[in-house]
Amino acid sequence: MAGIRSTYELLDPVAGSGQVYCPDFQATEGIYRLKADLSYEAIVVDSNTAVPPITQALAPPKYLSLVSVRFRGAQTHHLHPQHNNSLQPNTGPSSYPNTDNLPRPTLPRDRLKATASSPLSQSLPPSLSANPTDSTASEPSPGQDPAIDYTQSFPPAHSAAPASNNASTLTGTSVPAPLAAPQLPRKDTGDDDDSSFSLFQSMRLKKRSKSSNLTKKDAAFVSQVIWHDNLAMLLAQRPNEGTYFFYNSGRSFFWADLGHAPQEPLGRLDFYKAIPICHDVNLLTRSGSSLDVIIGFSTGDLLWFDPITQKRTRYNAQGVINASAVTAVRWVPGSETHFMASFQDGAVVIFDKYKEDHQHFNPLFAMDPSDPLQVAKPTKSKYNPTTYWQVSKKPITALAFSPDCQHVAFTSMDGRLRVVDYVTETLEDTYVGYFGGLTCLSWSPDGKYILTGGQDDLITIWDFYNQRILARCQGHQSWVNGVTFDAWRCDETNYRFGSVGEDTKVLFWDFSVSALHRPKSAAIQLRRMSRASSTFSPPSATTPLYTQHENVVHEVTPQSQVADLEPVMAQSIHRLPVCSITFREDAVFTTCRSGHIKIWLRPDTAAS
C-alpha cells in the first residue's frame, strides 16, 4: 500500500517552477496567476480493480469540491422550495455567490407546479415542514454500530509516513472568499474568508484503529481511515470562518483545510476495491460541528460521511438497489436528509440518509414502460429508495438542480439533455446533442440557460425558457470534461463561463444574447418557412419535433442554423487532461488526471 505523502508548491507568479506547465494565462480582464499546486499521493487503482469502462472514460477521477463554513454563530435552516420560493440551490460541488441582483423572469409557460400535495413534498422530513424547528437530536444513521461511541476522539495509533515538509510559507495572500449558504439568495454581511495559507511544518497523520471506527458492515469496504495527528487542536483553534475542500483521487478520499496547511490533509479514507467517483457536501446543514458529505463509488455504493464527528453510513451496499456505478451525486436543495444519485444504467435514485436500504426492491414491477420518465417507489416508506427514476437507457454523466430548485437536468451518453420537474416527477424537455454523448452540464445563475459539453468537442448553450438552442461553442480539440458559469462575472445581460477538456486546456467564454448572430443560412430558411402554409411547419431551433406525454423532444438543429461562439481565452494549463474547473470570488481551481489541484488568483487578487 502506498505511503501517505503530499506535495505543495508555492509558485513564483512569473517564473513558475519545473513542475508547472503554465505559470499564468491572459484573459480579457487581466492575468490569472498560478499561486499554488497541490498534489496528494493516493492509493493507485491497479489492474485487479474492476472499473466500468464508462467510468474510466467519462467520470473525472479527480473531483474537487469546496465548502465554506461558519464555525461560530447561529446556523440558519431553510425550507423546501414549495414552502419558500427564495431558495437558491447547490448546482455543483462548489459554492455560489448571492444572486439577489440577478433577474428572475416570468416563465413563458407553466413550469412552476409545486404543490403541498405533490408526491415528493409528502415525503419530506418534519424539519422541512411549513413550520420548521431547528433540531439538534443526533439520530443514529442506519448501519452504525450502537456499541461504538462515535463522539470519542481518536485513540493513539501508529503514525503513517510523514508528509513532505518542503513547503514554503505564503503570506499576505487572501484565499477565495467562502459564500454563505449558496442555496439561498440572502444578504450576507462580512467576508467569510481565510486570511492566508498558513503552513504548519512537520505535521503527521495518524491512523485510527479499525476496531473503533469500522463497523462490520463496511469493514470490507474501507481499508483504513487516517486522521491528522493534531486534528483536535486544529479544529479547536480554527477561526470564526473557513473553507474546507474535499477531493477524491484513485482509491482515496481527502479532506483538507484551504486556509491552514492545505498540503496536510485533515483526514483521508482509503478503500479496498471501490473507487470514489463523485461527492457532494450538504451546504444547508454545514456547521462547525458537523458536515454531511455523500460519496459515490464505481461499485454502486454510496457513503455518507461526517469528517468532524467521524461517523459514516453505507448505502446501496453490494448493489442491493442498483448494481451499476454511481456517476453523479447531489444533495437535494433545501433538504437536510435527501440526496440524489445517478447510475451507469441510466437510473436516478433518491435516498434518505436516515433510512435503511430495501433488501428486495425491484423497480421494474412498479414502472410503466410507456412513460418517458419511469417512476417507482417502495411499498414501505421506511426504506430506501424514496424514489427511483429510469431517466435513460444509457449512462447518466451529470446532474444539476436549477436555481429555482424546481427542475433537475441530466446529461447522458445517448447525447441527450433532459430536464425533469423534480416536484411533479415529470420529464418536460429532451434536447438532442450534435454528436456523441454529453458529458457535463451547468445552469446559469439566473436559470435562463443550460450549458452542456460532450464528445463532439463542442459546448452548447440551451435557452431553457424559450426551449431552443442558442449557440454552439467551438474551441476544444477533444472531449469536454467540465463546464461551469463564473457567477462573479455574470450580470443581467452578459455571461462568462469556463470549460476544460481532454486537450489539457481551459477556455473562457463570454456571451450576451443580443450579440449572438444567427447564420445567414438560418435567416434564409426562416424566410422560406414564413412563405409556407401555416398548416405545416418543419422542425426548427424553436419548434419541437414531437410531444409524448409531457415530454417535448427537441431534435438536433443543423450547424448552419445555429450561432457560433468562439472563446475569449484558451490555454493549456496541465500536462494531462483537465477534469474540473471551479470558480471562486478570488480564484479559480482546476484539477487534472495526474492528481494536481491548481489555484489561479484572479487579476484583481494577484495585483493586490
TrEMBL record:
Compositionally skewed regions (Low complexity) per UniProt: 117-129, 155-168
Regions of compositional bias (Polar residues) in chain numbering: 82-101, 130-141
Keywords in alphabetical order: Repeat, WD repeat
WD repeats: 431-472
Residue ranges of the region described as Disordered: 79-195
Record's GO cellular component terms: cell division site; cell tip; nucleus
Pfam families: WD40
Single GO biological process annotation from the record: carbon catabolite repression of transcription
Protein name: WD40-repeat-containing domain protein
Organism for this UniProt entry: Dimargaris verticillata
